[in-house]
């Protein structure tokens, strides 16, 4: 089918000081509007799926999260490590582990290492000195293997990275043990991989003088075992280091036997409590300044925390031990001082700090004396979040932390307990990598009756349970009785309890556990409602029990019911599953089929220990459940046979849109990268298309119009095979959204230049930004206007992201439409903008001209001709009156308005979820003057339409009789059966019963008053 050019110019005609006018000719159809432009994108960023939509209330159900701890006689920098059996492993982005006992200037260093992640780089660091927190914060030589490239790496660190050698070598791939050995003699290094010498180097320029030896991992997880120095074994033994219910950042905190929490940093560190965010409360703690330069105290209303001195949002209340001052300030990934006032206190003594806060208001007490009151009246108050402790510039200690008078005990997580679980009783734990049911690890528990483990769900928020609503529990167990005990089988117990374990809401006994893995099921019927409950698995006998793959779900499994209802209410017509999550090397379709609980987990992009319990099959089922057209992406390196198997698994849901990759080549302009993408696209297409001829393929190569020759290469290689090219605009503001019109027009013109008969079009699978506020809602409304004007060249539009947990922003995407916590959902302004647009969809864009600044307007009508819809975005800070002149429409009987407006930074909070929501009203019609305005006589209808400041308003005008659409050459519409009948449309957005080929005649009103008649071949 031939595709028409973008026929119509921008409808926004700004003029400084000009009146706001809208002139509409309802008889002139400028474009067809695809019904699939009302989309949303999900990609499990910030746990949209795992912890959100996926109705699995246990977080960490597969025990894949490492049991983090200290390693005896080693110092860990950057992140904690884990000991399991005879091996040590890092499962974070980077880390160093430096031995206290190994000192080498002349000798040998050897270990077996296993690269767990697809991008992991791991090995030795030698002759180390001046180590500290930071990826390259040390002096030393590095000898590593790179999993992603299969290369040997040698380099030098002087508080930086100086590459010296990198080349391919033969070694076992991911998951295989390799022996790395280095013989050291001063500044000379001879390196061996699996017994073969691969490299020799002598530093003749500026040799280093350190003598410490350590292990290092970058870009993912690496395991080590059998570590020897000069033939002497250096064992890995775990010691408690992780604080139960807290998350450490920047540096490592320690706990003394008498309950004192300390940080010995000379730089900075913070520790944040994992729990439901607070909007108000009273915090108290005793703090001692252990270093003269330290500034230490509380942080509250914390969100978006990460590693870095100011890497969080929140307020800080501290004591400065050096200047003897009270400090109050605000962090928004930076530092803003609010007060720094002199105060009499002894830094080395225990000083009591107390803060009473309610949203952005706070009263601060030091040693029971009120010293400061503050209310944040800025445009960016922080009104809810987590609480934590912080020290900056030196060491400090804390004790006796209370929240609302209840003490929060500091205690270590027992060694060997998987990260997302809590200990119950006095059992002992092994994070067992030798006999998992799925994945790499299972949890081993040894003890007596009552000892066990507890889970509080995502972020340790608690698990929401309701009285009388069953929770279904499935888990895989095996076990071992003590020697000499009866072999009648083991028993375990599962329960739902209050967060402190003092109340029990439901329980069940599990019997018949043997030495072999088995699946067990139990139904738990709560006798009370608790939004913050916990799940407990405990021993019913003295024994050793292994657990793996624990499911706790409701009747709506695998989809969480309240989130599903929110999706349904939005009125989406298109849903996308993809994004950067598919760029993880382990995101492969072979792990996505079969029983949900028995699928292998994978190393995810956004979350390392990702689940396949919810994968592409569940997504496609969910998309159809809520009445949307699904599109999903696959990794470009996937095996075609595995993809075909997955497609068979979802055949009943009629998949039609398949994207090959996501944002491929985004980090490079190298033609070779695009060539590799094309090669992989064709490999997958050639295998899939013959078996699935109705599936339409989407290009994911990053669109770079400035690299025209490369774009043309990709286009010509994939034209006729790909139906769409995915384009990801940045649309945080309305003006940014408006600017995309030029980019889209240029894309279409390039396509038609390269092939005038092409059918390839543009799909927008991600409108991106950093916000979920009113400004973003207006930007999306403008983006929809832009898309309507493309006449089907952009038939699919999807903002990112659909979901976001409250106060969770681990990865920079703070742009959710539906927000949720453990038991509630509420909606943000962009959600309502999408809901308004979808609810008022009409298939025909009619001719309209608008004047005025900061306005974007489109006008659509139905096929019958008796309903006209105006989508008006006023993205100025001033209220506007839009003067409407409407011709060739029947007599207007009613005008209704639905409007969303408010402060550009406005967003909805759980305590006021409808603060920014649409308001509906029926407008009073103007009194007719002279002849009946707007009737068949042709007299135009005029009216003033009110536009609030910072608003998106949908006006719906209904007429008493349908109005005709005039086509000058034939006097009728060649598709009038479609325009006056069918409400259904194909993927391209055209009426389903319209001819797919033919001549369309469009009448355009030119600025000089003349009328141009144009034939368009489709």
Radius of gyration: 32 Å
Uncertain segments are: 1-17, 930-936, 967-1006, 1009-1018
> In percent, how helical is the residue content?
10-25%
- The DSSP helix count reads 10
Number of beta strands: 68
Distance between the termini: 6 Å
Query: Main sheet?
Result: 10 strands, mixed
Strand content: 35-45%
How confident overall, as mean pLDDT?
90
User: What structural category characterises the helix and strand content?
Assistant: mainly beta
Which word captures the global form?
globular
Care to give the gist of this entry?
This protein is mostly beta strands and 1018 residues long. Helices cover 11% and strands 42% of the residues.
Notable characteristics:
ten-stranded antiparallel beta sheet, 1018 residues, ten-stranded mixed beta sheet
Task: Reconstruct the topology from this structure.
Layout lengths: L11 E2 L7 E12 L6 E4 L6 H5 L14 E4 L2 E4 L3 E4 L2 E4 L3 E10 L2 E10 L5 E9 L9 E8 L4 E8 L3 E7 L8 E9 L2 E6 L2 E7 L9 E7 L3 E8 L2 E2 L4 E2 L6 E4 L3 E3 L5 E3 L4 E6 L6 E10 L5 E9 L9 E8 L4 E8 L3 E7 L8 E8 L2 E6 L2 E7 L10 E7 L3 E8 L2 E2 L14 E3 L3 E5 L9 E6 L4 E4 L7 E3 L5 E10 L9 E8 L6 E10 L4 E7 L5 E10 L3 E11 L7 H10 L3 E4 L24 E2 L5 E2 L5 H10 L3 E6 L5 H10 L7 E8 L6 H18 L7 E6 L6 H11 L3 E5 L7 H21 L6 E7 L6 H15 L7 E4 L3 E3 L12 E3 L4 E3 L1 H11 L4 E8 L3 E7 L5 E8 L5 E8 L4 E10 L17 E5 L17 E7 L3 E9 L16 H4 L19 E7 L5 E7 L1
Parallel strand pairs: 1-59, 2-62, 3-47, 47-50, 50-51, 51-52, 52-53, 53-54, 54-55, 56-57
Antiparallel strand pairs: 2-59, 4-6, 4-20, 5-8, 6-7, 7-18, 8-17, 9-14, 9-18, 10-11, 10-17, 11-12, 12-13, 14-15, 15-16, 18-19, 21-24, 22-23, 23-34, 24-33, 25-30, 25-34, 26-27, 26-33, 27-28, 28-29, 30-31, 31-32, 34-35, 36-39, 37-38, 38-46, 39-45, 40-45, 41-44, 41-46, 42-43, 42-45, 48-49, 57-58, ...
């Amino acid at each position: 089918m031939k595709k028409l050019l973008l026929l119509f110019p921008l409808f926004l005609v700004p003029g400084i000081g000009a009146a706001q006018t809208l002139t509409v000719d309802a008889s002139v159809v400028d474009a067809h509007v695809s019904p699939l432009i009302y989309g949303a994108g999900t990609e499990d960023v910030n746990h949209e799926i795992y912890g959100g939509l996926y109705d699995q209330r246990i977080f960490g159900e597969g025990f894949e999260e490492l049991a983090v701890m200290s390693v005896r006689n080693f110092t860990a920098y950057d992140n904690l490590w884990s000991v399991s059996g005879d091996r040590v492993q890092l499962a974070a982005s980077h880390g160093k582990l430096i031995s206290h006992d190994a000192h080498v200037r002349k000798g040998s260093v050897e270990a077996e290492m296993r690269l767990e992640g697809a991008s992991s780089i791991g090995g030795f660091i030698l002759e180390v000195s001046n180590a500290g927190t930071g990826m390259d914060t040390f002096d030393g030589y590095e000898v590593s293997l790179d999993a992603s490239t299969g290369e040997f790496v040698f380099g030098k660190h002087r508080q930086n990275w100086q590459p010296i050698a990198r080349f391919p070598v033969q070694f076992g791939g991911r998951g295989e043990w390799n022996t790395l050995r280095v013989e050291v003699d001063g500044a000379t290094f001879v390196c061996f991989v699996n017994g073969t010498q691969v490299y020799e180097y002598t530093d003749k320029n500026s040799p280093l003088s350190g003598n410490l030896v350590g292990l290092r991992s970058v870009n993912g997880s690496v395991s080590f075992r059998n570590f020897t120095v000069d033939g002497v074994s250096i064992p890995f033994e775990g010691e408690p280091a992780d604080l139960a219910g807290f998350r450490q950042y920047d540096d490592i905190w320690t706990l003394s036997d008498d309950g004192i929490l300390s940080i010995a940093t000379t730089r900075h560190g913070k520790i944040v409590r994992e729990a439901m965010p607070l909007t108000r409360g009273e915090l108290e703690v005793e703090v001692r300044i252990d270093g003269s330069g330290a500034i230490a105290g509380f942080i509250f209303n914390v969100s978006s925390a990460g590693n870095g001195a100011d890497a969080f949002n929140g307020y800080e209340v501290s004591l400065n031990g050096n200047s003897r001052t009270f400090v109050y300030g605000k962090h928004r990934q930076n530092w803003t001082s609010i007060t720094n006032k002199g105060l009499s206190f002894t830094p080395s003594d225990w000083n009591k700090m107390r803060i009473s806060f309610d949203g952005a208001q706070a009263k601060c007490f030091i040693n029971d004396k009120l010293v400061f009151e503050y209310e944040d009246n800025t445009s960016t108050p922080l009104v809810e979040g987590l609480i934590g402790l912080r020290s900056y510039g030196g060491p400090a200690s804390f004790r006796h932390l209370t929240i609302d008078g209840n003490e929060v005990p500091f205690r270590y997580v027992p060694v060997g307990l998987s990260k997302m679980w809590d200990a119950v009783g006095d059992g002992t734990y092994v994070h067992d990598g030798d006999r998992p049911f799925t994945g790499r690890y299972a949890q081993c528990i040894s003890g007596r009756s009552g000892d066990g483990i507890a889970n509080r769900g995502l972020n340790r928020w608690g698990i929401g349970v309701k009285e009388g609503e069953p929770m279904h529990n499935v888990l895989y167990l095996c076990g071992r009785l003590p020697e000499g005990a009866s072999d009648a089988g083991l028993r375990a117990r599962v329960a739902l309890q209050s967060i402190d374990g003092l109340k029990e809401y439901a329980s069940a006994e599990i019997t018949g556990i043997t030495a072999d893995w088995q699946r067990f099921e139990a139904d738990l019927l709560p006798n009370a409602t608790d939004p913050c409950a916990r799940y407990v698995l405990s021993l019913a006998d003295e024994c050793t029990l292994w657990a793996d793959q624990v499911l706790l779900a409701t009747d709506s499994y695998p989809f969480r019911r309240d989130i599903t209802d929110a999706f349904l209410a939005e009125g989406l017509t298109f849903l996308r599953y993809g994004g950067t999550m598919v760029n993880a090397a382990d995101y492969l379709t072979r792990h996505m089929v079969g029983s949900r609980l028995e699928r292998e987990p994978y190393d995810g992009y956004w979350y390392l220990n990702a689940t396949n319990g919810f994968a592409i099959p569940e997504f496609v089922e969910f998309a159809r459940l809520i009445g949307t057209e699904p599109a999903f992406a696959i990794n470009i390196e996937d095996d075609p046979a595995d993809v075909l198997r997955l497609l068979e698994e979802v055949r009943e849901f009629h998949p039609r849109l398949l994207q090959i990759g996501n944002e491929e080549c985004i980090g490079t302009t190298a033609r070779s990268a695009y060539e590799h993408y094309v090669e992989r696209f064709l490999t997958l297409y050639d295998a899939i298309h013959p078996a699935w001829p109705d599936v339409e393929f989407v290009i994911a190569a990053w669109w770079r119009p400035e690299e025209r020759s490369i774009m043309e290469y990709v286009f010509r290689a994939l034209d006729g095979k790909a139906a769409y090219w995915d384009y990801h605009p940045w649309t945080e503001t309305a003006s940014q959204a408006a600017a995309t019109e030029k980019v889209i027009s240029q894309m279409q013109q390039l396509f038609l230049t390269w092939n005038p008969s092409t059918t390839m079009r543009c799909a927008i699978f991600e409108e991106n930004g950093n916000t979920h506020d009113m400004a973003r809602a207006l930007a999306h409304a403008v983006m929809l206007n832009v898309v309507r004007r493309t006449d089907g060249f952009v038939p699919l539009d999807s903002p990112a992201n659909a979901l976001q947990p409250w106060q969770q922003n681990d990865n920079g995407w703070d742009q959710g439409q539906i927000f949720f916590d453990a038991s509630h959902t509420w909606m943000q302004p962009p959600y309502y903008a999408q809901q308004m647009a979808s609810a008022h969809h009409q298939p025909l864009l009619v001719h309209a001209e608008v004047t005025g600044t900061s306005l974007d307007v489109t006008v659509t009508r139905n096929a019958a001709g008796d309903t006209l819809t105006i989508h008006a975005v006023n993205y100025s800070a001033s209220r506007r009156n839009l003067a409407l002149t409407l011709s060739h429409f029947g007599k207007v009987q009613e005008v209704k308005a639905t409007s969303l407006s408010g402060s550009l930074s406005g967003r909805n909070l759980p305590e006021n979820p409808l603060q920014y929501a649409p308001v509906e009203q029926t407008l009073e019609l103007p009194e007719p003057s002279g002849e009946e305005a707007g009737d068949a006589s042709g007299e135009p209808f005029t009216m003033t339409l009110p536009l609030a400041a910072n608003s998106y308003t949908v006006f719906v005008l209904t007429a008493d009789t349908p109005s005709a659409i005039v086509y000058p050459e034939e006097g009728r519409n060649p598709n009038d059966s479609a325009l006056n009948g069918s409400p259904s449309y194909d993927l391209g957005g055209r009426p389903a019963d319209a001819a797919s080929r033919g001549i369309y005649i469009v009448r355009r009103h030119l600025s000089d008053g003349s009328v141009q008649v144009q034939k368009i071949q489709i």
